[in-house]
What does this fold into?
Amino acid sequence: MRQPCCRKLVPMTDTPITPDLIAAHGLKPDEYERILGLIGREPSLTELGIFSAMWNEHCSYKSSKRWLRTLPTQGPRVIQGPGENAGVVDIGDGDCVVFKMESHNHPSYIEPYQGAATGVGGILRDVFTMGARPIAAMNALRFGAPDHEKTRHLVAGVVAGVGGYGNSFGVPTVGGEVNFHPRYNGNCLVNAFAAGLARTDAIFYSKAEGVGLPVVYLGAKTGRDGVGGATMASAEFDEKIEEKRPTVQVGDPFTEKCLLEACLELMQTGAVIAIQDMGAAGLTCSAVEMGAKGDLGIELDLNAVPVRETAMTPYEMMLSESQERMLMVLEPAKRDVAEAIFRKWGLDFAVVGRTTDDLRFRILFDGVEVANLPIKELGDEAPEYDRPWVEPAQRETIAAQAVAEPADYAAALLTILGSPDIASRRWVFEQYDTLIQGNSLQRPGGDAGVVRVDGHETKALAFSSDVTPRYCDADPYQGGAQAVAECWRNLTAVGAEPLAATDNLNFGNPEKPEAMGQFVKAVQGIGAACSALDFPIVSGNVSLYNETHGQGILPTPTIGGVGLIADRSRTARVDTLAEGQALLLIGGMGTHLGASIFLREIAGSEAGAPPPVDLSVERRNGDFVRGLIASGRVRTCHDLSDGGMAVALAELCMASGVGASISLGGGPRHAELFGEDQARYIVALGEEAADAVIAEATAAGVPAMRLGRAGGNRLTIEGVLDVAVSDMTIAHESWFPNYMSGSGAMRDVAA
It folds into this structure.
């Protein structure tokens, strides 16, 4: 039966709707006036909470969706782009890869273990909600200055949370990033990525279909943890940050593993018409999205919701972000089969509502209607803003000649190798299970994680996560383009064909024109690079308001990419350098020191424009390198990024335990060694093949030159430096363990 939109609600509380209460729910006065206009009356407290959840930045993308529409999202392999729980890309033979990246920044700063753990749990649910079994995870982590009082605590808690959840659930963590910068002192970033495999004819969506069908609650019970979490994630931090601790969810990876198996078993029965993860805003967001997408209404009876705490109110149940929960529209004839599966796995199964034909979102509790709202306006008609923005100021390009050379090149290289952003992440990734499921072909530490496609004789998938925040701060457009290019390059460096990407756009307060300008230009750069490289964005997340006391983070548009390897016997690695091999540089010699690691760590400056990205050169050089790997001629490859050629060479030597003797090209030595020019790779191959590859590159218009030869136990650069591989390894491997143990050696480095 249709219900009039202005039917009087029986109040569940005598809480008056005051301006302070409206503000506490993250709603602006004009947004509240819009609510009044939509429903024709004052909302109940529960309804105010529902609007707050659906109209906050985290759920509605009200400041960003105008610009997100400009991104390329289509491609010949794209099955599902943005708008679902995750993106879906065809990998042939009836298989597809399902993947997404999402942030859990605010919760992780407040409570690092649970914040990071539930970030992993949430992104895994996004993937298996679509019918895919998760096969790989990554994480991109940004922390404040190492000497900040909270940084070590955050690093320890976040890494433990990521490992604690992912390891227990049983998914390999195959890659990621860790960076440090003072601009993250008040807001760490935790971006979680997951990918899974599914059959192309067995993908599940969240669009509800059919009237009068059961709406079923699946998984764990509802508690008070996470109430208001989405609203909290859409605001800046201030001195009251500790009061927000109750808005952080608590995860249970073992329950999530059971939920995965139950859902995948259920999906084989034909019982699922639509299914949606209960993530941000919990029961509210999942129910509204399912109904709105299907042009249907939803009626929920909260007395049927399984709860683990007493005397929970409708407000708390609708806004709880308790983990390991799903909402499903069920084929009625399959109810007994579906319920038996969930009972077998020790999970709750409860019919909590039904679909309707009236486009209303109605909530009942104790037989009383406590909410009656227009479902389309809650979902896809939330406010949309065209925020004012200003063009970011352009930094001047710094000529290499204007930067002083180091007095001791060997000391400079060791300093960079032992610096927080370049040092080995072994302390981090060894806390993650990287081999579970038995399909990992490359462990973290190389250019990309590689996982075989289970059940297929030759195929593998590659995964990488990339962004250089200091570039984005210096020039958001170039920084956004470079993030895409580096991700594409890292996939190429292992021999993968880049298929598609997901983004996690982390920025400051969009109500500040300067921060909004950074966002706009970064999105434009990302769009240009994705178009030029045929690397569409198929899913993603926007995290705004990453500010504390008015201090914003570095603009950090993280790009997570997926690539396909047709023949996994022909891939490249960084740890296969062998005695006597020729080392070739694909791409030009280094020239650009602006915004570089060298400039920051050796000269103590973050000045200058970042290296420009020539997307046509990026594609040309990358396609050539991928061809070398696919032909079987190259098994050792490394892209050049932070620290330039010197760091790339050192990483190749350290990974393989083999030295190298190198000659430079005659330009400024520090620029050739540490310049961070883009579109470059180092490859190693047999001496007998080197001249032919250089000739082939020249014919293709690709710059290529012989650097030298691998061998011995020292990295020697003629006339510049001579350093033992063992000394480089000690510098590279020591920083993280020393830092996390609080040792004096680390404090000396930081000083």
Notes: The CA atoms of residues 493 and 637 lie 6 Å apart. The first strand starts at residue 78 and ends at 80. Residues 1-13, 230-234, 241-245, 744-751 have pLDDT under 50 and may be disordered.
